[in-house]
Amino acid sequence: MREIASLLLDWYDRHARVLPWRVPPGQGGADPYRVWLSEIMLQQTTVAAVKPYYERFLTLWPRVEDLASAGDARVMAEWAGLGYYARARNLLACARTVAKNGGFPRDREGLQKLPGIGPYTSAAIASIAYDQPHTVVDGNVERVVSRLFAVETPLPDAKPRLTELAARLTPTERPGDYAQAMMDLGATICTPRKPACVICPISGPCQASAAGIAETLPRKRPKAAKPRREGVAWVVLSQNAILLEERPASGLLGGTMAFPSSGWDGSLMPPPVDATWQVLDPVTHVFTHFTLDMEVRFARSGAKPQRGVWVDLKDFSPDDLPGLMRKVWTRSLDAIRRDQDS
After folding, report:
1. Do residues 101 and 36 both lie within one domain?
2. Count of domains in the chain?
3. Ramachandran class of 308: left when φ > 0, alpha when ψ lies in -120 to 50, beta otherwise
4. Is 100 within a domain?
5. DSSP for 53-103?
6. Which of 100, 120, 189, 251 has the most CB atoms around it within 10 Å of its CB?
């Protein structure tokens, strides 16, 4: 086991990815705020997608105290596009707790008591920021370990076994660098398709590589078909404003500004204003647990809305909307142009 960790760390010293939240190999002592922020953003998202968001957040809020004092709406707007908006709500709650307590806890148990921090994130922060020998297991690590030990049990049933094997590999020296080395190996060499076993630093002891089955692992249960839902979204313009509403703090797209809508999230709401509606083609959006077909309706009205608030068009940016609502806006653009030309 020590040989594997040593081989991997030697490789990491030469080939570590340069990422904005990292310190160079061998230096240790990464800023826990930067590690935490990156780990929350990276959940269910790719490194390439996260980089610009992460850098913008650091520019706006370079310290956890700065983020803690930020307004909810501003943070949610900057988060728009990363998805899984409960993470953004927990991000703010966690920042405010940490700022109130004078900093991040230095132990995994204390970290895991913070909002939005579970077993994986607490292990990552403790390992990478504080160089403590905790086992960090994400999808990349599961893939590497399943191949290294030729674990053919399908996921998610194999998770306990993979975590146990990963813990055996975790060294007491440079555990933070080791954790990041495992992630880098999975992201760049031990990839889901066509793993580059020929240049892998631990191909020697890899059982799946020796058996010629690396690309077939980890095995996964067949996915069930996603159910479909339907809904409707209303895009309303007045002379110089657009109608938006803040979604409930909990639930889908929680806390974001969005077009009034109904049906898709369990709500049954009437149109926000009395108007003659143009029915546009629906947009399709895929969530984790279902696929949504959202009908789009457009109208111009100066009536007092039954819900939502008028937002001056000069203050409105589609980029501040969550992905689903950006699709709704894009679908309505032709109708808006026709209305303006008439």
Report:
1. yes
2. 3
3. left
4. yes
5. HHHHHHHH--SHHHHHTS-HHHHHHHHTTS--THHHHHHHHHHHHHHHHTS
6. 189
The predicted-structure confidence for 168-198, as pLDDT tens digits, reads as follows: 999 999 999 999 999 999 999 999 999 999 9
3-state class (DSSP) for residue 257: strand
User: If residue 330 lies in a helix (H) or strand (E), which one and from where to where?
Assistant: helix 323-341
Q: What is the CATH number of the domain that holds 51?
A: 1.10.340.30
End-to-end CA distance of the chain: 73
User: If you average pLDDT over every residue of the chain, what do you get?
Assistant: 94
Q: Indicate if 39 belongs to the active site.
A: yes
The values of phi and psi at residue 264, to 5°, are -80, -20
Which of 39, 142, 245, 295 is catalytic? The answer is 39
**CA gap 110, 303 in Å, rounded:** 52
> Is residue 237 pLDDT above 70, yes or no?
yes
CA atoms within 13 A on the CB side of 202: 28
Residue-wise pLDDT tens digits, 162-176: 999 999 999 999 999
What's the rounded Cα separation, in Å, for the pair 11 and 6?
9
With 70 as the cut, is the pLDDT of residue 159 above it? yes
In a domain, 303, yes or no: yes
pLDDT digits (tens, 9 = 90+) for 96-128: 999 999 999 999 999 999 999 999 999 999 999
